[in-house]
């Protein structure tokens, strides 16, 4: 069951009001990979480049969305939280950007769902990247925890 990402994003903005201000108007989701296209203008800092806090927020949410969507599409309603993250700012974001996160394949999503079903909770390690002008500008390495409701 593929999630309607427009409806999911609308709901998400009611849960995390900050998202209304970041200029995110769509999520591109294919079942194992998520991309979040984002305009620079509402996320700019005093130097005219991408604000690190915006990049951190969008990256954190992107990993949360991937984890949530993988489980939701397998019939599992879970509370998902980020338990640990490490950020690396590699290059300045100088234009509109996209945040990307993915699993290797559907087997990874199925394994995550199986762990949640068996144990009631599971961890997922993800690498989320902010890409601008075909260059990785920021990388988040995070551990997400899903707890079955």
Automatic annotation (TrEMBL):
Q: Which residues cross the membrane?
A: none
Tell me the Pfam families matching this sequence. Answer: YiiD_C
User: What range(s) does the Thioesterase putative domain occupy?
Assistant: 11-147
Xref: InterPro entries: HotDog_dom_sf, YiiD_C
What is the recorded name of this protein?
Thioesterase domain-containing protein, putative
Question: Where does this protein come from, organism-wise?
Answer: Marinobacterium sediminicola
């Amino acid at each position: 069951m593929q999630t309607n990402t427009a409806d999911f994003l609308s709901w998400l903005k009611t849960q995390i009001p900050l998202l209304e201000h970041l200029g995110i108007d769509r999520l591109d989701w294919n079942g194992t990979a998520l991309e979040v296209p984002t305009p620079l203008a509402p996320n700019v800092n005093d130097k005219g480049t991408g604000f690190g806090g915006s990049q951190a927020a969008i990256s954190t949410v992107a990993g949360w969305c991937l984890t949530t969507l993988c489980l939701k599409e397998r019939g599992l309603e879970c509370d998902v939280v980020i338990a640990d993250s490490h950020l690396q700012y590699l290059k300045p974001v100088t234009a509109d950007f996209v945040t990307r996160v993915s699993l290797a394949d559907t087997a990874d999503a199925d394994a995550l769902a199986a762990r949640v079903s068996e144990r009631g909770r599971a961890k997922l390690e993800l690498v989320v990247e902010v890409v601008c002008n075909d260059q990785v500008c920021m990388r988040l390495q995070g551990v997400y925890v899903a707890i079955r409701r």
